[in-house]
Each structure stands twice: as structure tokens, then as C-alpha cells.
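Side project, low priority. Logging it here so it doesn't get lost.
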Amino acid sequence: MLIYSSGKSIDLRPTKIIAVARNYLEHAREMKAALPDEPTFFLKPPSALIPDEGVVVLPARSSRVDYEVELAAVIKERLRKIPARDIEKYLMGYSVMVDVTARDIQAKAKKEGMPWAIAKGFDTFAPLGPKIVPAGDIDVSKLAIWLKVNGEYKQRGNTDQMIFPVDELISYISHIMTLEPMDIIATGTPSGIGPMSHGDEIEAGIENIGVLRFSSLREQ
């Protein structure tokens, strides 16, 4: 996927997308989930990526597909077991991502005690963009984050509401698995998640980074 960063277009091909769950207090509450004692995360396939102005396809097998706006960190250099204080030098920068979720499929899997990778892994389920802002150019500790559907605000929060800050998240993950160049870490979503319908126009924004735009269409 081509994305603009530092004056040039990059063919963004991550080995993995790592998404952090329940990293905003109010989102954990709306999901009726306990607060984590340590970061919790799952994987999305790189094939889920689509660029700014793309189209999210709502699968025929799902009756509810939700949006979740997130701050995304993009890795620049291979890292493994790196302390939080040193994380910034390993980052290419930050972008906006929407973690799209087939909520009904996820709920059924959870109820049955089964993995829910399907709910997160459909093609087009990771819009990202519109650009990557270099890590050294921005402080992500306190940025407004929001999402609109058809011009109406649905999610509004701030990155200072994260339970685990970005550098701590990436350090924690690096102690479990090696992070490769262009890997993406989605750092959690604020409250207000909800469903998309056929023909919706979605805008997802983060202060000082930009606005990601995409539409949603039902699978034929």
C-alpha cells in the first residue's frame, strides 16, 4: 500500500499489524470488560490494509461491522526487547487507522471460547492514512482523536486517556515478538464504537496527524 511520508511515497508492506485491546478506560467500560493489568493485543493480517479514500467491504456473513479509530505507530527499524525510553528512534512515525470489526462474529466466537481472528481479519478491515507523520515531529501523548459517520461525531477522545502509553505498549510487545520495519501497532480506541452501513462516509482524525476518509459498501 502506498502512503506518503517525509516527502516521498512508501510502499507500506508490514509483516504484521498488532492491535491493542481495551487501552482506553471508557472503551473498556462500554465493552463491559475488566481493565487490563498489562497490555492485551491481537493480530490483524496485512492484507486487511486499505489506503485513504478506500472502501471497507461489509461482509455478507456479518450483520454488524464496527469502526474503531486508533493512533497507529509504524516501525522503522527491527527491534526486540527495547526499553520504553528508547522506542522513538525505532519508529518511522504515526498515522490514523480504523480497526474494523465484525462484531457479531467476534461476540459468537467469544461466547464459544474460540479465537476471533475472523472478526478482525477480512480484507479491507484496516484503513490507514492519510500519511505518516515522522515520530520526531510530534508528541502523541495528548492529541484529540475522533471519528465521524456521515458528518456526525461518533467517537471523541484524547490519547492522554490511554491506560498504557505508546512507548510502553511497543516496548511490551517487543519483549514478546520481534517487530520488523513497517510493522504497524494500533494503540487502542476511545469509546463510542458503533456499526457502519452500506453507503456510509467515514472520517477518522487525529490532531496534528490528519484525517483518514473511506466509505463502506455491503458485499454483493
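Brief comment: The mean pLDDT is 95.
Revisit when time allows.
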